[in-house]
């Protein structure tokens, strides 16, 4: 995949790394750029940046014998530290050169020296502390200084640029720097002075792709898209915010199957690997991507949505930016709402190429806000702000943007990271100049105002008691309820993710007097089973109710329900005894009885060979389990992930053709302890 693994620009072969996950250098990343560049040093003093790996200062003297003295600025002690080859070692106050340092080099003699250096920096961030900092520019050539320092944010007070003509530092206030002109442009590897009022992690836009690691058998169709999709997301944040997540601080793991991810963690030496493995097991099958030190994206989720934009990458990438700028402990609505805002802003920017160059404030349109108004509860946000999540957080972030500008979202995270003792409420109030409780009320008021403008009044919500049971009285508890109301032309969700108690009972909210549908999402052992719609006293599958675009329409599938006030309304859901109750379960092993990884099991109907429910990857111990929709006959197909090698489970547990498949009868109970024996030659060719 995509990485210069060493300063030499070594490209590592695929075969060498196949077992641990593929990581190779991206030729695309270096396209049009030499692997090294030249810094011309003039006699006398030169201000440059150290862009490569940490090294002892002696390495610099060995590379350039003409250097008489090297200084670095210590921002905390506000003094120079130095080393000189002609001074006794005991007099040196500088031992190590670190990436991101600014260097003041004194060249002895009257000849210029061309210093050849690696083009790719070893990292993409520089820590700035209060006062004057002398640091390296790690971003692109010909970068206007005003645009470059935008990534520092409001804390930037002054910038000092070295003039090779006058041999002086010229000081500018960031807001007075004009783009264009030699003096206001930075070249990769320049040294510059930056004065800030508080600590900040400066995420410089280097344009360098992070390591992208393939785990498992990732389809070539996905591999081909990885560099361009990643580049597009980097460009968005660089162009609009002047920042880019430090590529050296994380990798992108593109994962085909859970076992490959777990093996990756087992083979690593990360002290947090046990936590990472547990997190992966918890999220697998329910999440498209997440951040656990590295950015993890499930292969199926590395796709482009109907609008042609990456499905999950921008959202998860923003979580990396949050962490690198300043994460601390944030409520879910703020953590996820800002990430969703970033994703949707990217989506608009990417979709409308003609809008590039405009601030995202122009791209974040009212139509997106209206969409999330519906998700946020039909014009009413939950009373407990701790219950706010993605949708409410997205609406709240929109409120931040329309009142404080797009840069304020990034500024909040900068301020949060500027102090080890900062809590999110104080950082929030300092950024937005508003107490959190007042902001929450503003958001509530804005939501109500939007609804008043559109429908004339904010809808009243009425609680409805829902009870789900089987004919034999057994409660159904593995459902999550949602209510979709036809309250406006946009429709809205008056309820989300309500789980029943152990008796199968739940309270869900409907919009009073408005036609609505009740939806139930079923899961089993943390894995999504299917979405069902209430109709005529039971739950039905929505597959037969599609709109002209081929999508399931909730308002076609579900029964239209209306509830008036003062009736203590209730809904009784009665399901037949076999409905999604019984399991087919077993274990997959090879001929020696050992667990085999990267296996997916499909449950199909022998009559039409239609897949009955979501396929299941085997667990780390080789086991699998399905809920089946009804009593009846089923067959199993086993597939090795990333290949076309598959077969149907026969009576003897081996694999064969479709006509040889064993028929598993489910009636009044499940089928357990199925042992599937994979032949040694499966997928060996």
Can you walk me through this structure?
The structure is a single chain. This protein has 685 residues and is an alpha+beta fold. It folds into five domains: 1-26 and 209-300, no CATH class; 31-203, no CATH class; 327-452, no CATH class; 461-575, Sandwich (Immunoglobulin-like); 583-678, Carboxypeptidase-like, regulatory domain (Immunoglobulin-like). Helix content is 24%, strand content 30%. The chain is built from 17 helices and 37 strands. The strands form eleven sheets. Strands 30, 31, 33, 34, 35 and 36 form a six-stranded antiparallel beta sheet that branches. A five-stranded antiparallel beta sheet has the order 23-22-25-26-27. Helix 7 runs antiparallel to helix 8, helix 9 crosses helix 10 and helix 12 runs antiparallel to helix 13 (390-404). Mean pLDDT is 83; it is low at 1-31, 179-183 and 547-552.
Quick rundown:
By secondary structure, the chain is α+β, with helices and mostly antiparallel strands. It contains 17 helices and 37 strands. It folds into five domains: 118 residues, no CATH class; 173 residues, no CATH class; 126 residues, no CATH class; 115 residues, Carboxypeptidase-like, regulatory domain (Immunoglobulin-like); 96 residues, Carboxypeptidase-like, regulatory domain (Immunoglobulin-like), CATH 2.60.40.1120.
